[in-house]
Amino acid sequence: MQIKPRQHLLDVWQAVGRHSFDSGGWAWGKWGGQSSVADTERLLCLLYPATEIPAFRLDDPDTTQEDVQKALRKAGGRLEIPVNVLTATAEFMRNHTGDDKSPTFAGGYYFHSRDSAQDLTPEQRELGVVDSYSMSVTLCLATLGFLKVYETKTRRTEVLELIRELRTATSTRLTAAMVSLLRSFTVNVFDMDSSQGRTLSELLGQGRLSQRMVMQRFQRRFAALRAIVGESLVLGVDVAEGLADPNQLFECGWAWSLVEDAPEVETDEPIGSQPPGVANAVPYLYFTVVALDGIADLFSDRTLTLGLLNAEQQKLAEALRLRWEITQQYWSAIARFDSDCWPLEDIPWRTTGQQLESEYFSLSVAAILVHDLVRRRATDDDLTRTVGIMERLAERGRITSRMTGTDKVVELHNPGIILPLQGSERTGPPMQWRMNDFSAQLLKRTIQLCTLSRNPVSHDRLLRLAEDIFGHMWRRRIGGGDGVDLWDNVHAVYPESPATDHPVSWTITERVTECLVSAHQLYSQSPIRSPELGVLARALLSESAHLLGNEQMESAPAADGRRGMDLRGIEVKLRRARQLVDEQPGTACALTLDVLGQLDALARARDAATQGE
Predict the structure, then answer these.
(1) Beta strands in 78-182 (DSSP E)
(2) What gap in Å lies between CA 134 and CA 296, rounded to an integer?
(3) Nearest alpha-carbon partner for 229 in 320, 314, 134, 327
(4) What is the pTM of this model?
(5) What three-state secondary structure class fits 26?
(6) What share of the chain is helix, strand, coil (3-state, %, to 5)?
(7) What integer pLDDT is reported at residue 553 of this predicted model?
């Protein structure tokens, strides 16, 4: 199925508008306010495309395009849409603020009890989670950028008052989210003989290297990074001492929530009290990927161009950027530990902290690798090998291959991979987190890789894979009822999967929206330039120019005659071909071949006329 970013985004917006707006006002419904994660994802389905794609912008009513306005007609007219979107965002900020006026980041109904007979306590559902911290960064930056433009387009007193209130609340939430991300980052140091050490050693050695050889390579590979982590980050005493010992292994990344005993971050921003941490100091691949996605928005061109961060937030952003770069370098090096046979190519990946094994974790490591490939402008070899991994994951996940009747891979999509949240037992029944967005995450990383690739063969493989995965995701839209045309109807593609009774999955819907924005960016960039086509285009241009000059030596044609009009058209096409030869050599070839055909037709016509005489 071909990805048509504009049309498909309009379809998503129409479905979101039908579900979330009632007579122009935002309707949160039964599940609204029950999870800050779900509510953030829901708002991002509108605000993310509206601030990332110029054609979808809503902050300047005078430029709102007709098809966009039609898709959001449930939200009101051209002038009412931005006001109603901002009103919904202001409600979100108020709904997810504590009694002490500090922002809250509750996981809510996204948290599950490990014991089906024992429900979670209200206090547990109010615990913050990295998903909320990360996506709050994206939402707040989108909102601040929206406000910056829309403030200059309205003179209504009540709207300007709403803008001032929302800007203050959004800036406070952004700071609180950044502080929480800093306090959720962790470095886990462990001995080679521990269960974590043995798992990591087996993962890196792949049955080809002994523990001693793995340790020696690890020491060499991570000596510089170990020094940076130990010297640049504020860590606990035990962690700092462990990092100083080269015979200790380590991992870095984000825990599922605030880490137990994480020190408070000094800030002058009015974010209220900083709650104590509960999570064990163990990185999770899933939450690490989520954090990296949100932190990247702090350094986007849009954030820098609009100047969305204040001085205090810029300091926090630099601290997060250091952790962002360290984490990418670490996991990218782990994924490619042995250049002959990458550990990442040995699917499925096994986690050290939770001792779980799944294709989902292979995808998580691949996602971090994609981040790193984008950051350091990867080689063609790295890209080609990563393309192969994506294709294998799509096949093993039964997205591009047939699901058998007894295939347990269906659990990857429904109910999804279950993560035990280590440390949650301190607050009540042990908690867990469910991840069922494998297909959407795979689509997102495939499109990102396709945007990065400048190799025609790899680019074509990735584009075909992305179209296959997108077709799979599009079939999973809900066919009827409250969430019609939203996600997620797993049974549409996996009829044998267990029955589900869940609300609309804003997680999947938001991921698909992100993918469509990424696809828009993919098609907006210049096509890949082929050196071979460039050489051919220039050769064709040379021949065409010579033949045109020869044709123009003939007797001057009448200005309004057929031959004169043909020659003027040929000149226009050749000028256009010369303009495109560097950026679009294939198009230049097509234009020049057409010119050569016309010149040959003129020559044959002249020869026929001469012979007739």
Answers:
(1) 111-113
(2) 10
(3) 327
(4) 0.91
(5) strand
(6) 60, 5, 30
(7) 82
